[in-house]
Amino acid sequence: MCVLEQRKKFVREYETGDWTMSELCRIYEISRESGYKWIHRSQGSDGLEDRSRAPARHPNQTERSIEEQLLGLRRQHPSWGPRKLLIRLAAKQPKVPWPAASTVGALLKREGLAIPRRKVRKIPLYTHPFEQVSAPNELWCADFKGWFRTLDHQRIDPLTITDTVSRYLLRCQVVEKTNTAQVQAIFEAAFREYGLPAAIRTDNGPPFASKAIAGLSLLSLFWMKLGIVPERIAPGHPEQNGRHERMHRTLKAETTRPPAAHRRAQQESFDRFQLIFNQQRPHQALAMKTPASCYARSPRPYPAKLPEPEYPSGLEVRRVRASGQFKWKGHNVFISEALRQEPIGFELIENDHWLVYFASFPIALFDSYERAIHPLAAA
Description:
- By secondary structure, the chain is α+β, with helices and mostly antiparallel strands.
- The protein folds into 4 domains: about 5-40; about 70-110, no CATH class; about 135-295, Ribonuclease H-like superfamily/Ribonuclease H (Nucleotidyltransferase, domain 5), CATH 3.30.420; about 315-375, no CATH class.
- It has 11 helices and 14 strands.
- The strands form 4 sheets. The chain has a 5-stranded mixed sheet.
- Strand 4 and strand 5 (about 170-175) form a beta hairpin.
- It is rod-shaped and about 130 Å long.
């Protein structure tokens, strides 16, 4: 016989009137206080089942008002984790006893606001391209976020530019066409607002690069004239631009679900995201600071006039024709159509071998005996 059945039997025998409370309690080996308790509970709605022994209120339980603020901010920013939520709220209300991040995580899970993530096999981080970067504007990263469509079926191709060290989102802008003219105009506007970076890292697609010698494109030549180093990741290795790709994941989560009604609405969503990402969203890699608090404008201003390449007096200088060829001792030598109408410099390194420069950047090797252009060896 289980405990619940014994309690029911105790109540039935008491109700017969054949036993006194003292006699029944002595038989069941319980106190009179317990006996009266079970009689009382059998007549009410509580029943004879065991009640929870948990306290009605825990002394360390988070106040509901605090939980509501956390849940409200989470609904505004679905991709923010517990630490970002706490940093943001603590900055506004420093005297409030905010709970631990683990407590907030449990709250989000309990309220159905936790986003389960697919577990993937971890690979070693690719750190080499960034190990020498220590200050803002030493390296910018640029890329196109994968295209998608709005509800009116317009194609959206957002161009994004970030500063590597501070994670500051410099541009997030829809372009009608991913050609040199429109992309260069966006970079010019960024240069005027923030100054010039030392280098810009991109993938190998147009308009950032081409199949020409040294991967030269009209956009990369524009950067090189300004003294900006065009860095490119290895083909098929987006992890070399991992910080920028991570930003794209957050951008997609917060600006494309649900889809915008049209192009203008999508750009407005990008503008809101840029403001929140830079000014409000704490970044774990920045010790929970915002990108705006870590970024500073470049001391190199964008010039009023694009400078033309200049070469030291010891270099041979040739101007590339519209056909992509230059003249060398009466012979035409092809180098690249991307360099048409541009001057290039030649530095003799040994015998008939020359190092070819555009502005201050070596771009190729020239064998004057065979009159052939060869790519530089990979570093």
